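Box 3.1 A note on notation
Throughout this textbook, protein chains are presented in two layers. The first layer is the amino acid sequence; the second is a token string describing backbone geometry. Keep the layers aligned when reading.
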Amino acid sequence: MKRPRICAAIVNEDRAAIKQIEPLVDLFEIRIDLIGSGWRDVAKRLGKPWIACNRLKTEGGAWPGGESERVAELLSAVELGAAIIDIELATENLAEAVRRVKGRASCLISFHDTAGTPSPEKLREVVRKQLAAGADICKVVTTARSFDDNSSVLQLAADFPEARIVSFAMGRPGFTSRVLSPLFGGDFVYASMGTGKESAPGQLTVQDFRVIYGMEA
């Protein structure tokens, strides 16, 4: 089995912390909506591939402006060399946004349910829609309300073996899905750069994952 890949979410402009964590991760996520106007300076200094994300408020984000401005800011990351662009399935004019990304960066189409975990069939339908929209990577994130919700999201990678899937459940009950996701075929895991720097509820730190996966000596 391949070693799990870790993606560290960057939520501020702490360059010293980013430099310190860089050797320990495989890629970064730049949270444009959380970092603010300085996100470009942060991105330019990264030595690892990075995902550009400007999360919708309805899916847990904090972008203060309008939708067209949000998408324009996100797509500008293509010019800066982003390896992956995260576009929500619910994005207005999704097809146009995907068209502008394809061929220049990988297109990650995401879905977040901040209230609960839909049924397994509804989750599969989400992935089918993502693939139909042109996703290179499908990201499906729910909120765990019970332990059983872990199995619902973990099953997706097995249901779509030919697709690149990132799926887990947020919140304390979703701990198991965060840890086991890559072991069930998930493409990578999201981690915080440290305690108090989480980009989503229940997110483990980079060090947490490295210890759990036996990456530390």
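Residues 6-212 form a domain with the TIM Barrel fold (CATH 3.20.20.70). The longest helix spans residues 120-132.
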